[in-house]
Design a protein that fits this description.
377 residues; homotetramer; 14 strands; 12 helices; 20% strand; 42% helix; alpha/beta; five-stranded mixed β-sheet
Amino acid sequence: MARVEIGQHLGMSPASVSDLTASLLDEGVLVTDETGDPTSGLIRGRPKVRLFFADTLGSVIGVWTGFNRVELRLVDSAGRNRASRHIERPLRNLGAEELMDVLAGTITTFAQDTGAPNVKAVGLACQGYVDTRDGIVAWSPVLGARDLPLASGLSQRLGKPVLIENDASAMAFAIAQRDPVLRSGRTACLMVGDGVGLGFLIEGELYRGARFGGSEFGHVRLRRSGPQCRCGGRGCIEAYLADYALHRDAQLIDHRPAPTVLIPSESAMTPIVEQARAGDATLMKLFHEAGEVLGDAASILIQTLEPDHIVICGPGTRAMDLLRPSFEAALESQTIPELKALATIRVVESSMDLLTEGVVMQALRELDFDLARLKAA
Amino acid sequence: MARVEIGQHLGMSPASVSDLTASLLDEGVLVTDETGDPTSGLIRGRPKVRLFFADTLGSVIGVWTGFNRVELRLVDSAGRNRASRHIERPLRNLGAEELMDVLAGTITTFAQDTGAPNVKAVGLACQGYVDTRDGIVAWSPVLGARDLPLASGLSQRLGKPVLIENDASAMAFAIAQRDPVLRSGRTACLMVGDGVGLGFLIEGELYRGARFGGSEFGHVRLRRSGPQCRCGGRGCIEAYLADYALHRDAQLIDHRPAPTVLIPSESAMTPIVEQARAGDATLMKLFHEAGEVLGDAASILIQTLEPDHIVICGPGTRAMDLLRPSFEAALESQTIPELKALATIRVVESSMDLLTEGVVMQALRELDFDLARLKAA
Amino acid sequence: MARVEIGQHLGMSPASVSDLTASLLDEGVLVTDETGDPTSGLIRGRPKVRLFFADTLGSVIGVWTGFNRVELRLVDSAGRNRASRHIERPLRNLGAEELMDVLAGTITTFAQDTGAPNVKAVGLACQGYVDTRDGIVAWSPVLGARDLPLASGLSQRLGKPVLIENDASAMAFAIAQRDPVLRSGRTACLMVGDGVGLGFLIEGELYRGARFGGSEFGHVRLRRSGPQCRCGGRGCIEAYLADYALHRDAQLIDHRPAPTVLIPSESAMTPIVEQARAGDATLMKLFHEAGEVLGDAASILIQTLEPDHIVICGPGTRAMDLLRPSFEAALESQTIPELKALATIRVVESSMDLLTEGVVMQALRELDFDLARLKAA
Amino acid sequence: MARVEIGQHLGMSPASVSDLTASLLDEGVLVTDETGDPTSGLIRGRPKVRLFFADTLGSVIGVWTGFNRVELRLVDSAGRNRASRHIERPLRNLGAEELMDVLAGTITTFAQDTGAPNVKAVGLACQGYVDTRDGIVAWSPVLGARDLPLASGLSQRLGKPVLIENDASAMAFAIAQRDPVLRSGRTACLMVGDGVGLGFLIEGELYRGARFGGSEFGHVRLRRSGPQCRCGGRGCIEAYLADYALHRDAQLIDHRPAPTVLIPSESAMTPIVEQARAGDATLMKLFHEAGEVLGDAASILIQTLEPDHIVICGPGTRAMDLLRPSFEAALESQTIPELKALATIRVVESSMDLLTEGVVMQALRELDFDLARLKAA
């Protein structure tokens, strides 16, 4: 974290920040970077001044919950990855209490197994519209419950502060922390994978809509009478682009086995991509169609928000070579050229790891601010 | 069969036909109806003169092959149903020879088990584009093979004449045999069930396109970027209306179990229809969408062919109450009213039984004509 | 007309036909061809035996009525063009009686001005659904009236037999007369120009739907929410492809002047085609879109009717070079390849002349049959 | 302007603001409201403290340029309307210099004719993507030029500061000034009229995309293969909803006369609305379709940005009664209910007057800030 940022957030003058950080360095709360390598396993970005929290201040657990999967990650206060875990577990049919019991149990077990030192906070990312102020999942395509008080429910069970966030927002945050260019102007991160989500940042801060939520751009109904989406609608962007959609359609084309769980795993997706890459004409059409939808989606973002940067990220980028021709053709044909020229488009290949990283970074930042506020008071 | 029809087909004057039938009655080939009830289990229509072939002249087996099912039916020469059988058996992944071996074996076993007396011919209906003159399946969504010489292959194996037909055409033929109104003018029968097919009759005779095939109307791509169809295309009429499509989409909505076979059985379809009927909003939308597609399909038929009659038939009519509101609205909004007024639309609730009945009727008719030609010569 | 045809139509044996034609040659009704050139201005096809009606037997007038145009043509009994005329005259706002008065007046003046010898009949082609048996225009996009008894109305005014026909059917008939290949099997002629129409022939005879009409295929609503069509619907095939549609859209793109009449003339269409051909990107898109719709339309015909031949004809073929790339891509992507392979597709560049030719040929044929029937009696 | 706002913008404490305003009141720069009626012709909102600039401090001219129209408005420093003018003048075909000459001349003449006292600034709103920092029109559907330095060009010609803004943004600003509720949270104003535009406010301030522009949401291509848009694309939101689109389609339906200028005037739109309201079925369909597109547009805004408020405004609201049924149905069917519930939707009937009001308010605010900065320094 750079002093400038601390100052901006706390409304302190640079001079006051300098006093504060000096005092924190004395106390061992902050340390300066000794390695000279800003990327060595650290996920807390590239600060303008190399100043880190000591790794003895405790740790944070980042969690992602999908339809039938949980991803966990343990990070120390210096931002170093300590452990991670992947669990397959159907969650959608659980009631609210049961769901929170399961998640709390999963997190506790993970903390115990990994000997997590002094867990300060938990950050949890999930699909759906998340009230980030009150910690409520207002709506989610992967949870049966509505208006689920997930943060307080987990916090009570775990005895720790819990921060929740939309998963695409968490990934967007992580991506922007890695590249200062993406923290200036407006950056729209389209995350493609289990579903399709949008994390939108204005000058590095996540855009918040009504009720402090993000965006459900993946459920924009791009094509009337399009394919069925798991949200109950038809023709949503993710009904073409998400892994479950590609797998469902591939199944019908060549009668491959159904996935044992509704959301196909990476190992179920790989052969589809490889067969298409090898020239299977009908599977190629799947990616052609998906690429076209991706292009139309980017076009809507450009003409609605005119962001400076569009980032395509998430596991779905694994097939970007197959998506690209129709993506570019659609973007070209559906966008006013003068507007298209104002946005850069980049692809960040990224797994779900980046997502838990993002939510951990957000949790760490909250802790930092709390600490700084405490010290500054 | 009425004398008028015989005359028309053989180019004989009514007088000559009378002579011929008199001689056939003498020989016991033809019998007059004694029951007075023209519909008692007889499938050979309502002749203008009650004149039947004797049931001692042998029998005919009707077969329908779907994606993973075979339906069989044994009918005697008087047109009476003697036996039927339903077999679940995946067929799509079989090679040409293996497929024909399996079908021949299935038919032989059925004939043996049912003690079929003197099988004169086999009629087989299947999905796809069928060269009815040369007995070749040019293309089928449910068979891997192309240009499959199914009639000759089965004929060699069974030692009987084999007639093959597109399944929607077979059902259309059966329906028209039951109602003389549908044998005048132009009648378009839309069969909805495992797939969607069109049987089109002009003055009671099946329309034949290039290479003596019928129509693949169910694969008209009604909606660009629509749902995936099993033919490899997108947005086909059947990708909304066929059982497999409805079941696939219902599965995503409420996570019901996948069918054990790709094409869902009647018992898998029933709960979807019942839940929608009970008011499940998202499932109702499925039928709303399907009904709209059905309306657009009927509208295309009207504005392309201006038939006198449109018949909606097949197992999919089980949900006609759910389809009707959006069907009618779509038909209304997509058709020039003056043209819509020229076609009557009726729904004939019908199971796959009617389909095997149709192909049996066609086979019987061929036998009749052969016999009549023989006698007339 | 070949003897074979006469025989087929009158149900006479070849021998009887020979007797008949010999007698007609004696009487001077028929003449043999002396020029040796079967195409020298004659429109009556290439008979298997060069046998013509004498040009002294009278003449026929062919008429085409569009939205704001009338085309007239005088042909003698030998099939030679004698005169033609083009008149611009708004017709749509006229009531039924007034419309028939105007048309009758126009035809009478034309006959007088051209010194038409002994006019035997008038053939009139128009857009819309035409009851060809009773001579009634059931519906037309270019006439305000419905169920207009046009044939009898004109016949009373002119004192001649009047035959009416849908214009695309008339052109299809003319095209099939020029090429025997198109008279075998099924031929679907898509006429593109003022509107889009379909003339469908089975073994050389025009297909007749309910009430003896043809097809209103041009008003198939191919794209929900597409551009406005003059029929009142949206997204009709002709709302992309017809001259008026292309001109309307070009006007919005580059602010060219509105046509003085609603349907643009050939001279209004030429610069649009030439500018697109010269590389104007937005105008090229117009033809790209139109070509795609044409491809989808051909695909529907293939999968519904599986014709042996698809003919694209009419003034709109002037831009076939611009339409072709997207036409072929759409046809390819929207059609099952095995079915596409069964139909040949050809383009017949053709002006409205071919259309009046077609309706004249139909009128002449009726006269021939009448004459032959008379003689044969 | 309320003291609170001044303080927020200048970074001054309430106490400092009080000092400042007291001093300005002494100098006669500010006056207190004597009428007690906050709405009597004043457009500067309803301040928390009734404090106004004196009307003797000069005036501001607000201008809107459309495709073929210019609207002008003179407002004094107290925010009172002094004069307005409507001019029909084709602008699109003018080159950059000529266009700016014409606009400068038009503004000068207006100022002279109305005896505008001491014009301090000019605010100009236009369609298109406007770089509001550098005063450049990057792209516009109604101007031939690209990257037009309109602000500096006019400023040089007029010798005054010129502020330019996208027209929908200007109207959104005006609407938000009238209602504090719309200045909290996120407010998306969809302006429907000559075109369709979006003004998006976050906490009362206009959202700025890349290059400090707004949004070209009206050109989101909602329907592939939809009607032609004047931007060169197809299926844009405004190609259904804008006045020119409705008029174009109505013309084809009932052959009403073409507008003398491309963009129809209010008096050309009125009969279309009234005829539809009186029950003309085809014209009703136009508004049905437009309403559906409006609903889909609102749905995209909700699922992309989740605003707290959606405001539908502009002259197109004249037909809101006709648009509403399909608008609501589309919004309902295309939006996740839980997300739809988070946004309020309201309709603000508004003419182009509100638009020039908006740009004047922005110009006045800039002047106020300048003045306040000056005083505060």
